[in-house]
Specification:
The complex is a heterodimer of chains A (177) and B (317). Chain A has 177 residues and is of the alpha/beta class. Chain A is 34% helix and 15% strand. Chain A contains 6 helices and 7 strands. In chain A, the strands form 2 sheets. Chain A has a 5-stranded parallel β-sheet, with helices on both faces. In chain A, strands 1-2 form a two-stranded antiparallel ribbon. Chain A starts with a helix and ends in a 7-residue tail after the last helix. The model of chain A has no long low-confidence stretch (mean pLDDT 84). In chain B, helix 6 runs antiparallel to helix 8 (176-192) and helix 6 (124-155) packs parallel to helix 12. Chain B has helices at residues 3-34, 44-54, 65-84, 93-97, 100-120, 124-155, 160-169, 176-192, 211-214, 220-245, 258-285, 294-316. Chain B contains 12 helices and no strands. The longest helix of chain B has 32 residues, at 3-34. In chain B, 72% of the residues lie in helices and 0% in strands. The chains are: A alpha/beta (177), B mainly alpha (317). The A-B interface holds A 1, 4-5, 8, 11-15, 40, 43-44, 46-47, 71, 74, 76-79, 82-85, 87-88, 90, 112-116 and B 32-41, 44, 47-48, 50-51, 54-58, 203-206, 209, 212, 216-220, 223, 281, 284-285.
Amino acid sequence: MWNTLSRMLRTGLLTEPLPKLSEARSVVEGLPLEPMQQNLLNILGRALCIRHVDAGSCNGCELEIQALGNPYYNIEGVGIKFVASPRHADLLLVTGPVSVNMEEALRRTYEAMPEPKLVIALGDCGACGAAFGSSYASRGGVSNAIPVDKTVAGCPPSPPEILRAILDLIRPAADEV
Amino acid sequence: MSAITIVRQLSEVVLAIAIAPLFGGWIAQCRAWLQSRTAPPLIQPYRMLRKLFHKDAALATTASPLFRMTPYILFGTMVLAAAIIPSIATDLTFARAADAIALIGLFATARVFQSLAAMDIGTAFGSMGARRDMMIGFLAEPALLMVLFNAFLLSGSTALPSVVDVRTMHSFFVDPSLLFAAIAFLMVLLAENARIPIDNPATHLELTMIHEAMALEYSARHLALLEWAANLKLFNYACIGFALFLPWGIATQGRDGGVALAVAVGALLVKLVLAGAVLALIEALSAKLRIFRAPEYLAISFLLAVLGLLVHLLLEA
């Protein structure tokens, strides 16, 4: 126990600075955000709860999502946390190309979330189906099953890329991170 | 009942409601530092509450009125409990109406409603959480009662304010029986507030959760009230601990003017800061027990409290 404690005290803070956010984050389809949307994101983005759904992923993205929780990337430090129920969530993080067997589960999870809600499709599979494409077993991308607000490319995307995508979506431009 | 008594009572309740989330945030911050990570700001729990109150509630189609009522009942019982516990002053209107045994009954009422609401929707995890919580509850309650009996024997009364009044009369006097009781109380506090080693407040794994499993179906304002009630419960337990074991600083009967109240608030804040750091340290240094070890853990707590009683009867009576 004393060893654990002294190691804790010797280690110090390990969290890395946040990734730089993109300039265009306050713009949706070329238009700046309405004040009301800004206001909403201000409330939502300061205490975001994420529900992650694996819709047929290879678990590559899951490893990167897992890494977001460690002390280096430390997603909880910016006020974002993963939750165990879609009822608690504001953002649905979907990985995988949406296999036909997971489609119904994904849609129900989306419907169980209280408004206002956001969806991020993670990885090349979630964005467009990637190698799996659209077939008898795959829907070829999350947007074919539920509405998607943002996609993150990469196979798998790195933790800073995921963090930047989430922050781009929820932090209005006027806001210092 | 004078106007000043009502003001005192009101300020105590408002203070409890206002700083209970802050106490939770402080523990989370200490825990984050011990895990070598930067912590979210202290006001993060308030941001979470604000967000939840802004969202639309999504209810299951099978939800009965009981399910909707429970967050309000839970919040109400915890506020009432905060009114009974002498956290800053002992001359309280509510505290005279209800003693510590009624207080435990109040906590039990909250538990029953939360368990019923968890089973109401009919999901597997909800009823599993309810069953586990009931198991922890029926083992923790006698241990808590035994701890309180220790203090009752010393003060000759079952009301918490008179316990505080009697204890503060002997300045900085530590009773051997209360040492046992204090350890037992700390164990009960950890078990009752869903903390490591009984439950992990940071877990997302449905199979291991107890408290959160009961709240899985709640959203928006209902969830906000449940979280606030959970924070208030922890705050209340901390204040019971302060009243029994560290009563110094609380404004006692006859010495409760404005200055004494200000001192009491300051003392309460200092105690909360220290208690939060200690709780975070315990959590960082211990692992979660298997659920089947929980009865042994709570039996040890009960045993320590009984030992305290025996020590009192053998050495001091």
